[in-house]
Design goal:
It comes from Streptomonospora salina. By secondary structure, this protein is of the alpha/beta class. The protein has one domain: Ribonuclease Z/Hydroxyacylglutathione hydrolase-like (Metallo-beta-lactamase, Chain A). The protein contains 8 helices and 14 strands. The strands form 2 sheets. It has a 7-stranded mixed beta sheet with strand order 6-5-4-3-2-1-14. A 7-stranded mixed beta sheet has the order 7-8-9-10-11-12-13. Strand 2 and strand 3 form a beta hairpin. Helix 7 runs parallel beside helix 8. The radius of gyration is 17 Å and the shape is globular. It starts with a strand and ends with a strand.
Length: 249
Amino acid sequence: MELTVLGSAAPYARPGNPCSGYLVTGGSGAVWLDAGPGTLAQLQRHTRLPELDGIWISHLHADHCADLLTAFYALVYADQPPQAPIPLYGPPGTADRLEGFLSNAGRSPLERAFDVRELHDGHRARLGGMQLESRSVEHGMPGYAVRIHDGARSLAYSGDSAPCAALDAVARDADLLLCEADGDPPEDGQRVHHSPEDAGRTAARAGAHRLVVTHVGPFLRTEEALRRAAAEYPGPVGHADPGKVVSVD
């Protein structure tokens, strides 16, 4: 199984780095995790939309899902028509959110592009030989983390989340934990993200074998985020550099 970083910027795309988006390949399968702005262009360096086994969206903030809109145009009106609608797994309300943006005078044919399937806590799906299990996490809105395994290897992805027991369970003994590290906790105490220290602690509590931090906010240098995460976690720590390909083993 391989993780390809399409983008990791937060909360907006930067020169050379789109927002959150990842391609996971394993066995005969390919899954697009999160579809932040700019990630569709990078996805096409590796595969075409119709060749995906599915798309999985952690939550409906624009920096994680906005490229679904342009993917719709590619699939329905351009040169990437799918043989069948692509399974799209997202939080409740995903179809309505897309329809609200895409509709103009009439209804958009969303079902020609996507087979929308709503996530719930404990949701399971099998895509191209990979098993995906989603858990509801704490982000101040419906949001999910996911564990992907191919029978031998496992990848855990936090989405956007404050530290919580559900994410610990997703990451338990994972070969690779891809965890956001947005910045410092807010002064009002309303936790909806991981700090770099939180990412390290989550990886340590879960016994994850390797940590890759992502979604590092604009007020924190990558090197500082890595240093702070590594202070709380004894295993290997890396950053989700755009274009990076990580073997999950």
